[in-house]
């Protein structure tokens, strides 16, 4: 029974709800009848169906009872776009002093109104920037160039200003060195305040090693030393190295060749005392090129000092010749030197070879019977 009452209540509600759309019957002309209203007559009465306008967005019913949706217009206010991102034409740049470049900025979104971009360098001593983004390198270092929009969005570019090497030279002090010598390499870099003055040194031969801008002479010969900077500049020099022991042995060999041509016996070169005397006289001749010693004594007193006595003695001197062949040839072309070399009384020979402070070669040949 409760269920039925509930259903009836619903039906009644539906009926009541529908009443608003049913035609109302009555006599006379209802007030509010307007153009477009329709009239339906029944016997003895007149019925009016009134079509009234509805508010915007509601349905209205035409005479045929068809519902129509009235169009509405909504007006929305659009806010201007703001800068969300700035993209610069370069994130990093390396320049030399006085060089310039233009830093261009792209604003996103592109339709952003009045971005109000400004530029600033965090170190004007390194690089400056104009109000339109032209960057000028000033001095060595690193500067950050920032481009900032009016709303605080920013982007930045790192600018490195480098002072490059422009010139480099490499040289040594002497025209030649001896095995065992340490050769200082003379290096000049310009400008002196270059940002990166680093370089490497290589040699064309293993007869000398490189360590801390010095050569260690290991064997006789010539080699080219090359310096290469990090930015590609090159400089080179030639270093000549003599081997005094090898030179001495070659002079002995060439002298014995000349003696053999004359049917003379070969000279021996095993006397250590004689070798000591030859080296002493070579050093002394670099100080005073004469058969008189620097202290004024006779050259043969050097033999005596080295323990050589009671023998015939001979001495040849030379300077400036850079090879054994050259010095032997010159001695053989000099009658007095030739006579010593081809003396049949001599049986032993020693050669002293030294360099003076200017790299000039001095030779001493000592002969005894």
Name its key features.
single chain; 369 residues; alpha+beta; 4-stranded mixed sheet; disordered N terminus
Q: What's the arrangement of secondary structure elements?
A:
Blueprint: H1 2-19, E1 24-26, E2 38-42, E3 45-49, E4 59-61, E5 67-69, E6 85-88, E7 92-95, E8 100-102, E9 105-108, E10 118-121, E11 127-129, E12 134-137, E13 141-148, E14 154-161, E15 167-171, E16 176-178, E17 182-184, E18 186-190, E19 199-203, E20 208-211, E21 214-217, E22 221-229, E23 234-242, H2 244-261, H3 272-287, H4 301-305, E24 313-319, H5 324-332, H6 335-341, E25 348-355, E26 361-368
Helix pairs in contact: 2-5
Please, what is the average pLDDT?
Answer: 84
**Sheet with the most strands, sense and barrel status:** 4 strands, mixed
List the total number of helices.
Answer: 6
Unreliably modeled segments: 1-69
Give the quaternary arrangement of the chains.
single chain
Describe what is shown at a glance:
By secondary structure, this protein is of the alpha+beta class. 20% of the residues lie in helices and 36% in strands.
Characterize the structure shown:
With 369 residues, the protein is α+β, with helices and mostly antiparallel strands. The strands form nine sheets. A four-stranded mixed β-sheet has the order 7-14-13-10, with no helix packed on it. The chain has a four-stranded mixed β-sheet with strand order 16-23-22-19. It is built from six helices and 26 strands. The N terminus is likely disordered. The protein is rod-shaped and about 125 Å long. Helix 2 runs parallel beside helix 5. A hairpin with a 2-residue loop joins strand 2 and strand 3.
């Amino acid at each position: 029974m409760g269920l039925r009452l509930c259903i009836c209540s619903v039906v009644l509600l539906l009926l009541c709800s529908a009443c608003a759309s049913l035609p109302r019957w009555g006599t006379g002309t209802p007030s509010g009848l307007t153009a477009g209203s329709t009239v339906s007559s029944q016997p003895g009465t007149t019925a009016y169906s009134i079509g009234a306008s509805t508010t915007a967005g509601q349905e209205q019913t035409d005479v045929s009872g068809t519902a129509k949706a009235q169009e509405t217009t909504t007006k929305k206010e659009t806010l201007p776009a703001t800068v969300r991102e700035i993209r610069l034409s370069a994130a990093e740049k390396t320049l030399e002093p006085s060089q310039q470049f233009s830093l261009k900025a792209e604003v996103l979104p592109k339709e952003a109104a009045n971005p109000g971009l400004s530029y600033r360098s965090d170190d004007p001593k390194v690089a400056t920037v104009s109000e339109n983004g032209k960057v000028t390198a000033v001095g060595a270092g690193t500067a950050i160039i920032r481009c900032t929009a009016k709303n605080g969005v920013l982007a930045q570019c790192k600018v490195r200003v480098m002072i490059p090497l422009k010139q480099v030279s490499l040289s040594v002090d002497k025209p030649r060195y001896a095995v065992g010598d340490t050769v200082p390499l003379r290096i000049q870099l310009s400008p002196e305040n270059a940002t990166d003055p680093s370089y490497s040194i290589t040699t064309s031969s293993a007869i000398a090693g490189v360590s801390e801008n010095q050569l260690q002479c290991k064997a006789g010969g010539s080699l080219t030393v090359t310096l290469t900077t990090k930015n590609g500049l090159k400089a080179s020099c030639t270093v000549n190295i003599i081997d005094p022991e090898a030179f001495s042995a070659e002079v002995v060999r060439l002298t014995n060749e000349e003696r053999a041509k004359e049917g003379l016996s070969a000279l021996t070169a095993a006397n250590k005392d004689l070798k000591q005397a030859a080296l002493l006289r070579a050093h002394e001749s670099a100080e005073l090129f004469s058969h008189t010693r620097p202290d004024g004594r006779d050259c043969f007193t050097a033999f005596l000092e080295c323990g050589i006595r009671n023998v015939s003695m001979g001495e040849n001197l030379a300077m400036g010749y850079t090879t054994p062949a050259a010095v032997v040839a010159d001695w053989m072309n000099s009658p007095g030197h030739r006579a010593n070399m081809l003396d049949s009384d001599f049986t032993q020979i020693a050669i002293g070879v030294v360099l003076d402070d200017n790299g000039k070669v001095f030779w001493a040949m000592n002969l005894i019977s």
